Amino acid sequence: MEIFLDSADSKEITKWLGEGIVDGLTTNPSIMFKDGVYDLEDGARKLCRLLGERPVSVEVTSNEHAEMLRQARGFARWAPNIVVKIPVVNEQGVSCLSVVNALSREGIRVNVTAILSFNQAMLATKAGATYVSIFAGRLADEGSDPAVVIRRTRDWLDAWHYTAKIIVGSIRAVMDIQCAALAGAHIITIPPAFIAKMVDHKYTRETVKQFNQDAAKAVAQIATARAAVAGTA
Ligand code: E4P
Question: What are phi and psi of 184, to 5 degrees?
């Protein structure tokens, strides 16, 4: 399973890249705005350089198919590791699968985003998605169980040998990460604050403290023993 960061914060991204646990990056217009990236092209190019060869998802910002295609083709020229995010439907509920299909036929990798049902994931895959982004937190907000949608999608992809990968996003709690991993996510995209929570545990800290204290006591014992030997010599 892969871990992506759901962020546009270059400081946090650099930090977690250094820990060797990041396989890619996802953004959306809200994340870019929250993390102070107002110039999309400049910001996306910088993030792509930071990520090396790892995939970086950047989302289109229009409801119109023609404009989505224009933006997506432009994004794809910014860096070789760009993945274009296309919502499964637009604000009016109009399918965007024709856009997904056209881009994938051109060899542009597409992350079909804002997926909230198994049916959407299935259709996005059929249209040529490289990634299908299932929004766990938003699904749970609506009273649905994200694990069921993730599991069904994974089983269906495997049964029919599709190569599309499930990205689980919209993480709201550390427990969501565990649930997504066990439900069959290929990738979980995680806000950096949750990675910091995942790695830490107060009892681990106490354990390490105890070991360090005992190691210091052992060193003190040796010093005392050596001093005693030196005193009798
Ligand atoms: C990731 O690709 C999504 O854009 C992101 O996780 C959405 O999260 P949200 O539901 O917190 O906006």
Answer: 110, 15
Question: What is the Rg, in whole angstroms, of the alpha carbon atoms belonging to the chain?
Answer: 23
Instruction: Dig out the tokens for 152 from the structure.
Output: 């069904």
- Please state, in angstroms and rounded to a whole number, the distance separating the CA atoms of residues 132 and 3: 15
**What ranges in the chain are assigned the alpha helix state H?**
10-18, 29-34, 40-51, 65-78, 97-105, 118-127, 136-141, 146-159, 174-183, 192-199, 202-232
Establish whether residue 7 lines the binding site of ligand 1, counting it when its CB lies within 6 angstroms of any ligand atom.
no
Contact 101, 129 (CB under 8 A): no
Active-site residue among 11, 15, 46, 85?
A: 85
111 lines ligand 1 (CB under 6 A): no
Is 112 within 8 Å of 93 (Cβ atoms)?
A: no
Q: Which fold has domain 2-200?
A: TIM Barrel (3.20.20)
Is 153 near ligand 1, meaning CB less than 6 Å away? no
Q: Which atom of ligand 1 is nearest to the CA of 57?
A: 2
Q: What is the pTM of this model?
A: 0.95
**CA separation for the pair 179, 187 (Å, rounded):** 12
- pLDDT tens string 73-122: 999 999 999 999 999 999 999 999 999 999 999 999 999 999 999 999 99
- Exposed, middle or buried by CB within 10 Å (0-12, 13-18, 19+), for 198? middle
Segments making up each domain of the chain, as ranges? 2-200, 201-233
- Residue 232: the pLDDT is 78
